Amino acid sequence: MSEVLVIGHRNPDTDAICSAIGYAEYKRRTGMPEAVAARCGDTNDRIDFVLKTFGVPAPRFVPDVSGRVKDIMATQVVSVPIDTTAAEAMSVLEANNIRVLPVLNPDGSCAGLLSVFKLNKFFFPVKNRLFDSRRVQASIKNIAETLSARVLVGKNLDTEEDLVLMVGAMNLESFAKRLTQYPADRLVVLVGDRLEIQDRAIREKVRAVIITGDLELSHSMEDYARKNEVTLLVSPHDSVTSAMLCRAAINVRHMMHENLLFLYEDDPLDKTAKRAMTSNFLGFPVLSAEHKMSGFLSKTDLLKKVERKLILVDHNELSQAVPGAETMEIIEIIDHHRIGTLVTSQPILFRNEPVGSTSTIVADCFLRDGIPIPPDIAGLLLAGLVSDTLNLTSPTTTKKDQDILGKLEKASGVNARQFTERLFATGSVLVSKTAAVAITSDCKEYLENGKVFSVAQIEEIGFEQFWKRKLEVLHALSDHQLQKGYFFAALLVTDVDLQTSLLLVAGSADFRELIEYDELDKYPELDSAIYELPGIVSRKKQLLPFLTHCLKQL
Q: Are 69 and 47 in contact, with CB atoms under 8 Å apart?
């Protein structure tokens, strides 16, 4: 199914979540019904507070957008139960123009695969291959159903047996001689209106007699069969056709491939394609995480294109994008950050504005096109705007942010100042999360001058909680830097009330020296690897330019 995911960056903040939901709504209202809001990271307490306040569910969680088996597998699977006859299975294969058919157990699990190739080998064996065309492994009931035969006399019809076919097309003497070659209780005799053959077969108490050509049978012969406990069927087909159809009454259980290659819904397509194409199987049962069969993948399905496109919001660098983004078609980018190094295969809509939040840009899309903003969406966009601009106090704030915030207040019926106080009083990550989670809850990766580094931000009311957990946070930041192999990892802890921040840096000692003694700005080191940054509240507009400037000095 075709879909367009509107998705923010990894470790999403409030603006990323709110702008994704808002822009997906905008796209649906302007002719893109397949637009779906998504996220590639967990929400936090503040995001949950915003979503609950405006009664909007969290965007769909998509940890990786690269192609998966479930993206191209058939979900409406044509299959047959394990008690199906070969004749029934062949009808299903022909009706659906397919070459392989899953055989299912009563619980819905896949018992095996039945292929046209396997059926052909059974009915049309290669030359010089040992082949007993007389043997039929089936129940009398399945034989009767395959022939569409009438059952005149029946006994033990449901039991599967190893039977031998004999066509009574010779004289009585020859027939009597052949009868002695096989156990009578395994013989199924096909005969037309030759009364002497019918009589001899019933007298010898063969397992069954099939009267072919839909011919009438005398009542006395029927009574004779009942007396001798010989099953009696009447087939509408001639003897040759009836004999062929009897062999097709075999259960598919005896003909299916049982050694299968199972796939899982979330298996990556690139690796799966290599495994599948080098295997001898034509198709592959697909299992869910609960090991239930949820689909079927044929080799031809691997030629399908994954019908998924991306709209990136609140970022434009692949290092910050959802994993797998580089394999998908990116059709739009809506952002307010610096322009990174992302390359697309064709021209796209790229709206990048120097405003305080991506939510501002999304709200402007509604307003510019004269589309009324629903109250809940207006509330979310207001939350994203005040979160990123600290209610218009951040240096990133523009006149456009101020104007649009006023319009969002009217559309949502929410007072921005009061809402901001409630928002920042909710969910300190330094109280509710482990240090390792807290330092990555809003973390972005950057590449500058050949150096890869990360910058995270935590917004608090006061620094009390930080000083209590200082050592934990420093150790977690150092572990993060080492695990990722970053040149350095930085954490900005911002007091939204006093509009000031602390900066923690793990990594290069030479780089850390420049923070305190840089020629342009000098930020004193209050404690080991902890610097005081008065007046610095914006990662994007204030901290990142300073850090990249320090990098250039190296």
A: no
Which residues are registered as beta bridge partners of 501?
494, 533
Q: Which helix (H) or strand (E) holds 102?
A: strand 100-104
Q: Is the pLDDT of residue 127 over 80?
A: no
Q: Which 3 state secondary structure label does DSSP give 189?
A: strand
Location of structure tokens 């392989």: 100
| DSSP tally for the chain: helices H, then strands E | 21, 24
- Give the mean pLDDT of 90-95: 93
Identify the bridge partners of residue 492 per DSSP, sorted by sequence position.
Answer: 457, 503
Domains delineated in the chain = 3-67+307-424 (3.90.1640.10), 149-235 (3.40.1390.20), 434-553 (3.10.310.20)
Question: Encoding tokens for residue 46?
Answer: 């503040």
Query: CA nearest 365: which of 88, 24, 60?
Result: 24
CA distance 73 to 333: 30
The sign one gets for the Cα dihedral 19, 459, 501, 552 is negative
Q: Any bridge partners for residue 352, and if so which?
A: 335
What is the helix (H) or strand (E) element at residue 384, kind and residue range? helix 375-389
**Residues 381-416: tens digit of each pLDDT:** 999 999 999 999 999 999 999 999 999 999 999 999
Confidence of residue 520 (pLDDT cuts 50, 70, 90): low
**Is residue 344 helix, strand or coil?**
coil
Q: Quote the strand ranges of 425-542, DSSP E.
A: 443-448, 451-460, 488-495, 500-507, 525-527, 530-534
Specify the 3-state DSSP secondary structure of 60. Answer: strand
DSSP codes of every residue in 207-219: SEEEE-TT----H
H/E stretch holding 47: helix 45-53
Please give the pLDDT value at position 272. Answer: 87
Q: Tell me the Ramachandran region of residue 200: left when phi exceeds 0, alpha when psi lies from -120 to 50, beta otherwise.
A: alpha
Tell me the mean pLDDT in the region 20-29. 98
Tokens (6 digits) for 35: 């637009």
Query: What values do phi and psi take at 403, rounded to 5?
Result: -65, -45
Nearest to 20 by CA among 373, 322, 311: 311
Cα separation of 312 and 168, whole Å?
77
What confidence score (pLDDT) does residue 523 get? Answer: 86
Q: What is the CA radius of gyration of the chain?
A: 37
Residue 130 has what pLDDT?
45
